[in-house]
Design a protein that fits this description.
Length: 127
């Protein structure tokens, strides 16, 4: 397991991926974080993949299936902010993931800066 899950002081659940990130690990971490969110009554999650090593980008169908299934994995009304490293050449895949999630009614945004992602999630809490 090359990820950790913890609750931040601001009511956001944080999932940080390090080392190699596979689709299997992404599914596992999402399941665990969804359970943690439900247990703690949280609706905001920060998924930081900026330090992850992505050796093989999933194909389009795998990305599609993963991103539409956020709806089943997280509590209703959840907001997801994902942080990616802009130099990792996954911007197209990240944009596709965001679009698929949004078309499914899932509030998911992709960021290249952690502080911007947290600010977005905190701004939602202030509404």
């Amino acid at each position: 397991m090359t990820y950790r899950i913890n609750a931040l002081d601001n009511g956001i659940l944080e999932v940080v991926h390090t080392d190699e990130l596979t689709m299997q690990e992404a599914v596992e971490s999402r399941q665990r974080s969804g359970e943690e969110m439900a247990d703690r009554g949280l609706a905001r999650v920060l998924v930081d993949m900026s330090a992850a090593i992505i050796r093989q980008v999933p194909d389009t169908m795998a990305l599609y299936e993963f991103n539409i299934s956020y709806y089943d994995a997280f509590p209703a009304g959840s907001f997801i902010a994902c942080v990616i490293e802009p130099q990792k050449n996954i911007a197209d895949e990240a944009s596709f993931a965001e679009t698929v999630a949004l078309n499914r009614g899932i509030s998911l945004r992709i960021f290249t800066e952690r502080n911007a992602a947290i600010a977005w999630l905190q701004g939602l809490q202030d509404e």
